[in-house]
Design a protein that fits this description.
single chain, 135 residues, mainly alpha
């Protein structure tokens, strides 16, 4: 953004571009930057949801490999999606907030420990048993 301002200032000073053309060019650049920012945020949100769904599918595959009758229901998948997205957001916030690897590992462990009971509460006894025998 600063580079755009510098270029515009230089162009005005050298009077190579008329002011109306310069304003239109600036508006286009700003709009393009805004569009890129919006689409990157949308893409990141889609990516998070995709990762969460992949985690749920992996969990379901572990369960049905031991007990095909204990597959996750759609309701369970919906609940687990919320839990997984919460976990992904918490883990990403830790990466932003801390730089020390040991601190990040410790904070991540805290997140996993908080999320485990939530995930476990969604599963049935048969599903929990299938996961225990899977290990």
């Amino acid at each position: 953004m600063i580079a755009v301002i510098i270029i515009l200032a230089l162009n005005i000073m050298s009077k190579k571009i008329n002011l109306k053309h310069l304003i239109m060019k600036t508006i286009r650049v700003v709009l393009m930057i805004a569009l890129v920012a919006i689409f990157s945020q949308f893409s990141m949100a889609q990516n998070k949801e995709g990762r969460a769904k992949a985690n749920i599918e992996k969990l379901n595959q572990k369960i049905i490999s031991k007990n095909p009758d204990a597959a996750l229901t759609e309701d369970q998948r919906a609940q687990l999606l919320v839990i997984n997205l919460e976990q992904i957001n918490a883990l990403e916030a830790i990466k932003v907030q801390y730089t020390d690897e040991e601190v990040i590992k410790a904070k991540n462990k805290e997140v996993y420990q908080k999320q485990f009971p939530k995930t476990n509460s969604v599963l049935t006894a048969d599903q929990k048993l299938a996961l225990k025998t899977e290990k």
